Amino acid sequence: FRILLATQEEIGVAAQNLAAAADHLRVAGERYSARAAARFDVLRAEVQAEEARQELIRADGNLQAARAQLLQALGLASGEYRALAPPPDAVAVRPGVDELIAAAARQRPDLQGLARQVAAAEAGVAAARAERYPTLALAADYQYVTPESTTVFSRWSVGALVSLPILDGGRAGARRGEAEAVLVQARAALETGRRQVEAEIRQVVARIASASALVRVALRQVEQAEELSRLADVRFAGGVGTATEVADAKTSLARARYGLVRAQADRGIADAELALAVGSASTEESAEQTQPESREGAQK
Q1: How many helices (H) and strands (E) does the chain have?
Q2: Residues with Cβ within 8 Å of residue 180, at least 6 apart in sequence
Q3: 121, 182 in Cβ contact below 8 A?
Q4: Which pLDDT tens digit goes with each residue over 12-30?
Q5: Which residue from 271, 261, 244 is spatially nearest to 8, judged by alpha carbons?
Q6: Contact 48, 25 (CB under 8 A)
Q7: Where are the beta strands (DSSP E) in 1-149?
């Protein structure tokens, strides 16, 4: 899902880069026609436009591959989906690491299964220990003594049996030892699982913090690159700058935008990994299936 979302944003970045390159080519052509720029400036703008067009084609190929991967993950043979994500300010504040670890202990199916195994092992130990306790059996009987007689007499019989295991060849002790060993193994597996989950959550939280910092840095780089590109366009239009400066500024802007898309995708992947580690499903993302176009629209 996050790869699909990133490729969709890369399509937008590539389209913006192509539009900027086409506009720069137009300005270079006008200045060349007015004999205010050299032929080299036009050629450099044409190369930049072709490179932007290739980036758009490459981004479209990545988008188709991401859609195919999503269909494979969903187990569908066909369909077209568009990933939807909330704005950054719509994401709720994340709880602390200790709260996430506690939530994982309640929600992780593997930890719940290990906890049930511990409970079953404890019950097995209790049953094995109970085999050494005395057992008491009660029996009662009621019958007619002379059912053919007009005077009916009845008889009650009640008995009690107490059993005390003394000599069993050590079978009870062996079963108790086996049950206790199973309990020790179950508790060790539960403790190991908890530690692994805690380490996994802490690692993912660290990756989220790093990815968030990279997103903030990428946002500042995009702002700086946009301002640099604007100044390069103004200098070139005024005859002060060169086409090389404009091309370098456009390349830096496209690289900064692609870096922002990748940083946001890495942050989203880390969020999904945290949801998997905690054992909860994320409700901040969704994918909608696009409606098939008409035959005329498809031909267009």
Answers
A1: 7, 4
A2: 125, 128
A3: yes
A4: 889 988 888 888 888 888 8
A5: 261
A6: yes
A7: 81-84, 135-144
